[in-house]
């Protein structure tokens, strides 16, 4: 009997599941309210978070647009955004929330990442790492009211 073959270049998807102590309504608000979102994800949002709108997320080292495609109150939030520096490759992020006891089960998928496209393997690796970090930051904020991101002190230079 022969071993099954695996297509190493088949499209990949980042798939993460996390449990939060906060309610689905609280987690949804942290994902979709600009004042809450900037406490754990980007430093700033230029534009709004509304279906069929494009806005820009401002991070310490980059600016990234996103197109919100789904806002299903307390259940689903989805958007498209680019991964390559020239914006030539986009993925769709879907975040689904479901009640889990007194808390929330969050499922995030981002993809597909077609590894045959130049630069997409690196984008997939970056997405895997950065989504894990982002969801940890979300947990710190939503469950413990703690900001886990490194602080950036503006206007101060060390000696």
What does this structure look like?
The protein has helices at 24-32, 34-37, 120-144, and strands at residues 12-20, 44-46, 54-58, 63-72, 76-82, 90-100, 103-113. It has 159 residues and is α+β, with helices and mostly antiparallel strands. The protein has a single domain, classed as Alpha-D-Glucose-1,6-Bisphosphate, Chain A, domain 4 (2-Layer Sandwich). It has a seven-stranded antiparallel sheet, with helices on one face.
Beta-strand content estimate: 35-45%
Largest sheet: 7 strands, antiparallel
List low-pLDDT spans. Answer: 154-159
Number of strands: 7
Report the helical percentage. Answer: 10-25%
First-to-last CA distance:
68 Å
Query: What is the succession of H and E elements?
Result: EHHEEEEEEH
For the largest sheet, list the strands in their spatial order.
Answer: 1-7-6-5-4-3-2
Shape annotation: globular
CATH architectural group: 2-Layer Sandwich
What is the fold's blueprint, element by element?
Elements lengths: L11 E9 L3 H9 L1 H4 L6 E3 L7 E5 L4 E10 L3 E7 L7 E11 L2 E11 L6 H25 L15
Antiparallel strand pairs: 1-7, 2-3, 3-4, 4-5, 5-6, 6-7
């Amino acid at each position: 009997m022969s071993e099954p073959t695996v297509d190493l270049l088949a499209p990949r998807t980042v798939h993460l599941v996390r449990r939060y102590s906060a309610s689905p309504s609280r987690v949804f608000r942290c994902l979709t309210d600009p004042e809450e979102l900037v406490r754990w994800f980007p430093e700033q949002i230029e534009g709004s978070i509304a279906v069929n709108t494009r806005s820009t997320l401002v991070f310490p080292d980059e600016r990234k647009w996103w197109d919100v495609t789904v806002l299903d109150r307390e259940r689903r939030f989805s958007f498209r955004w680019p991964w390559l520096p020239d914006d030539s490759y986009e993925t769709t992020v879907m975040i689904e929330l479901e009640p889990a006891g007194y808390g929330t089960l969050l499922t995030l998928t981002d993809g597909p990442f077609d590894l045959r496209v130049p630069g997409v393997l690196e984008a997939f690796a970056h997405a895997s790492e950065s989504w894990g970090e982002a969801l940890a930051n979300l947990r710190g904020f939503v469950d413990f009211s703690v900001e886990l991101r490194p602080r950036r002190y503006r206007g101060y230079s060390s000696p």
